[in-house]
Design goal:
68% helix; mainly alpha; globular; 248 residues; single chain
Length: 248
């Protein structure tokens, strides 16, 4: 993968500044080829969040450091995935028709289900990360691995899926446009990175997370008739949390 394409993908998935001249000449259709860079982008994001945790834990304790870790991830990604989780929950738990659910997900206002989902995911991550630290796990590599897994398994909601909405959107750059080779390569890279990070139970946790994301994919496809950019963000948040829980 070319460096320019990787930097463009990094810019689209994070708030890390990338000079415009470094990504000039790329078309939107090129972005789907950057999918194999998702594990590395996850490692970068996880290293930032994990670094915040490592720096703050000796000073303020594990719970506050875990909260800072969650906040750091939100800041470095622009809370993009959290927003997708909230919108997805607002839509699928609205007990409305498929078309109405998609309209609710497009609405920028936060509903009750979305608010509860945000509270749950933040509290769950803080509690799980704190518990993992108390059990003596190497937190920097653990948090990097979680971010790698979250962003890599998101590809399962792209491969052989359809874009649920009419028209264009960020998710439409990827959903249904990823082939089997790209999917297998991305998942293999994620598995290798988890192993290289020295996670003893990481591969088992990755297996559990893979099953959870496949179940989420099937549920969302049944409810919405496909996937959207919001459901991709929801998958990242769910995968990160399941992976961390599976390490307990």
């Amino acid at each position: 993968m070319r460096l320019r394409l990787f930097l463009a993908t990094l810019q689209s998935m994070t708030r890390i500044p990338v000079p415009a001249r470094w990504i000039q000449g790329l078309e939107l259709d090129d972005y789907k080829r950057g999918i194999v860079g998702f594990p590395l982008i996850g490692a970068i994001v996880g290293a930032i969040g994990g670094g915040v945790f490592i720096l703050l834990a000796p000073w303020c304790g594990f719970p506050l450091a875990a909260l800072a870790y969650v906040l750091a991830l939100a800041l470095v990604t622009g809370a993009f995935h959290l927003d997708g989780l909230a919108d997805t929950c607002d839509g699928v738990f609205s007990a409305r028709s498929r078309e109405h659910m998609l309209e609710i997900m497009r609405d920028s206002r936060l509903g009750t289900s979305g608010g509860l989902a945000l509270v749950f995911i933040v509290l769950a991550k803080v509690l799980v990360v704190s518990e993992l630290a108390l059990r003596g796990l190497p937190m920097l590599v653990t948090l990097i691995a979680a971010s790698v897994v979250g962003r890599s398994l998101m590809i399962l909601l792209m491969y052989r899926q359809r874009y649920a909405r009419e028209g264009d959107g960020l998710g439409n750059l990827y959903i249904g446009r990823i082939n089997g080779v790209q999917t297998a390569t991305t998942l293999a890279c994620a598995a290798v990175m988890v192993m290289l990070l020295g996670q003893g139970n990481g591969m088992i946790a990755l297996g559990y997370t893979l099953i959870a994301v496949l179940l989420l994919r099937a549920y969302l496809h049944r409810r919405l008739g496909g996937q959207t950019g919001d459901t991709l963000g929801a998958a990242v948040e769910v995968a990160e949390l399941v992976f961390l829980i599976a390490l307990l």
